[in-house]
Amino acid sequence: MRALIQRVREARVEVDGTVIGACGAGLMILICAMQGDTETEAEALAAKIYKLRIFRDAGGKMNLALKDTVGAALVVSQFTLAADTRSGNRPGFSQAAGPEAGERLYSHFAESLRSLGVQVETGAFGADMAVHLVNDGPVTIWLDTAA
């Protein structure tokens, strides 16, 4: 699975002008299931993000993890993280999991993060969404369970 995480002051996702998910300080997580991914990868990625020390401590250093804060997460499906741009000018997305597996693993990832005690909001799988966020830092990190 692939994820692009951003430490945010706030984030929200809208469908047709209606807010369907939002969080305050915490993480904006764009997530993509890849061909061959299973629930094991979803759980491992959720655990990694939960323990990733990217939040500031009292001294201003990135020493705290989501597990150490009262931060929340907004999780949004993003199949374009599977983009293959090695050939030509039009990205290919054949490495992304199919819609059924993608939705299942996206939901499993969000539930895995919830089971760790994180307040999780989500977007709508497959919907045309408008994502708004205020990046904190900025801190943006790419994660891939295959790497």
Helix-strand layout with pairing:
Blueprint lengths: L1 E14 L2 E6 L2 E7 L6 H13 L1 E4 L5 E4 L6 E6 L21 H17 L3 E4 L7 E15 L3
Parallel strand pairs: 3-6, 6-7
Antiparallel strand pairs: 1-2, 1-3, 1-8, 4-5
Helix pairs in contact: 1-2
List the defining traits of the structure above:
147 residues, alpha/beta, D-tyrosyl-trna(Tyr) Deacylase, Chain: A, two-stranded antiparallel sheet, 2 helices, 8 strands, 20% helix
Describe this structure in words.
The chain is of the alpha/beta class. The chain has one domain (2-137): D-tyrosyl-trna(Tyr) Deacylase, Chain: A, CATH 3.50.80. It has two helices and eight strands; from the N terminus they run E-E-E-H-E-E-E-H-E-E. The chain has helices spanning 39-51, 99-115; strands at 2-15, 18-23, 26-32, 53-56, 62-65, 72-77, 119-122, 130-144. The strands form two sheets. Strands 1, 2, 3, 6, 7 and 8 form a six-stranded mixed β-sheet that branches. A two-stranded antiparallel sheet has the order 4-5. 35% of the residues are buried. The model has no long low-confidence stretch (mean pLDDT 97).
